[in-house]
Amino acid sequence: MRRVVIAAAVALALGGCMRPPKPLQGQFPPLTVADAQARPMDGTRVRWGGEIVRTTPDDDETCFEIVSQPLDGRAEPGDQDTTFGRFIACTPGFYDPAIWAEHRDMTVVGTIDGYTDGNVGGRGYRFPKVRADAVYLWPKPLPQRTVVYDPYPYWGPWGYWGPYWGPYWGGGVWMRGGHHHH
Fold first, then answer.
1. DSSP assigned state of 68
2. Which among 24, 121, 142 has a CA at the least distance from the CA of 67?
3. φ and ψ of 13, to 5 deg
4. Is residue 58 included in any domain, yes or no?
5. What residues make up the domain containing 126?
6. DSSP states of 94-123 as a string?
7. For 7-31, how does the pLDDT look when each residue is reduced to its tens digit (9 = 90+)?
8. CATH number at residue 47
9. 19-to-14, 71, 114 alpha-carbon distances in Å
10. Rounded-to-integer distance, Cα 115 and Cα 112, Å
């Protein structure tokens, strides 16, 4: 049974063939957030992603503050310990911060549109801003399951008959010599 499950999971992973989801497909320059902080690149199309720090719905758009991370072949943010800096992505419409929540991974496709000044941890920070025409929220990672090994799967350490003071012996108090005193 377990083998089937594993095979299915592998087939699923391979079957995806590492293509990004439809809205994220396309060719993009290998620019990072750090590149865009270094010099203006307004109008450049980028595909950036990472971990959501803050989701701020406004009247007619929602802006996300994102800690950028390298994207894998599916355009999914990967390495939690690598970042190219933070950026702000804004897209028309309302996105609920309860769903587009802190620590969730998202990827955006859009056009660099100047900067927003803000701060990170009390220090001034210059966020490249992306006008996003595609935003993609990645499914939550499944909680890591812990497999507990039970060395006594059925009968406990005493084997089939249970502990010797158990029901097999009539339930009485077991005394040395095995005699019951009434």
1. E
2. 121
3. -65, -45
4. yes
5. 20-137
6. ---TTTS-TT-EEEEEEEEEEEEEEEETTE
7. 444 444 444 467 899 999 999 998 9
8. 2.40.50.140
9. 10, 12, 30
10. 9
